[in-house]
Model the fold of this input.
Amino acid sequence: MKFWTKKRIIGYIYCENKFRDDEKLFIKLARKKHVKLVMFNIAKELDEKEIEKKAKKCEIIFNNSAEEFAWEFVKTLEQLGKKVIDSSKTYYFTEDKWIFALACKEHDIPTPETILLSENLNIAKRELHEFNHWPVVLKRIQGTCGEYVARAENIEQAEEIINKFWQKGSERLAIIAQEFISSPCYRVTIVGDEIVQTAIKNGRSWKKTGIYAKNIERFEIDPHLKAMIDKIIKVSKIHICGIDFVKKGDEWLVLEVNSTPAFDFFDEEREMIIGKVLNLLLREIQ
Ligand SMILES: Nc1ncnc2c1ncn2[C@@H]1O[C@H](COP(=O)(O)OP(=O)(O)O)[C@@H](O)[C@H]1O
Ligand SMILES: [Mg+2]
Done:
C-alpha cells in the first residue's frame, strides 16, 4: 500500500499586469515544495462566483499586494471563511498612524511624541503651539511612501501643509503632529516571529522612505531593540511586516509597522525571505 501526502493549496493575491520577481520566486519555491498555488490577480476583472470557486480550494491565502484596493479583497475572502495572511484585523494598527501611536503608548513601546490634531484649523494651530515641538512632522493618519508626511518649522508652515493635505486627498483625513527625530530609518523585516532582514535607510532628505533612501546597509539588532520588536509583533498580531525605527540618541523609537513589506532591500535575500514566507504559510494551515 502506498501513501501520498496531500498536496497543499495556497492562494496568492497580487495586483500586477505581469509577474514581478516576488511572484516568479513564489511559484518556483511552491513547485519545489509540491504546493499548488491559486493566483488571484486583483488587477484583472473580478468575478464573484469565480473568486468563490477559487477561494474554496485554498487552505490559506497570502496577500502580497500593498495596494489599498487589496484590503477589500482580503475582507471578501475572510467573509468567505478563508484565512488570509495577514488578516484584515491587523490593518487596525498598520493603516492608522494615530491608532498605532496609541497602541504603542498603551503597551509601553517607545514612539516619537505624537498628538492628534483637531479638524478645526484654528484649534489645530493652538494644539501645535501647546505641543511645542519644532520642527514638527505632520502626517495624515493614512498614507504610504511619505506622500502625506511633511515637516513644518513654524505654525504658518504647518497651516500650509495641513491645507495642502486636505486639498490634495479626496478625503479630509485626520492629521497627527509628531516630534521630529533626526535619524536614519531602520527597517526590520519580520516573517512569523523571525527577523529575516535589517536595512538602514539613509539619504540626504530627512524622509528616508524607499524612493528617497540611498546607501542601504544592514545593521545589528541589540537586545533592547529585540525586546521592542517582540512586543510589537505580539501587540499587532501581524505575521509578515516591515517595522521602521528611528534612533533618538541611544533610544529606539518605533515609527510604524508596514504590512505587505518590500522583500527587495537586498535582491540576493529575496528568495530566502520568500521561502520563509512559504514555510510560515504552511505552518499556519490548520
Ligand atoms: N517623527 C519623525 N521624525 C523624523 N523623521 C520622520 C518622522 N516621521 C517620519 N519620518 C521620516 O519620514 C518617512 C515616512 O514616514 P512614515 O511615518 O513612515 O510614513 P509613510 O507611511 O508614508 O512611509 C520615514 O521613513 C522617516 O524617514
Ligand atoms: Mg513608512
Notes: The chain has a mean pLDDT of 94.
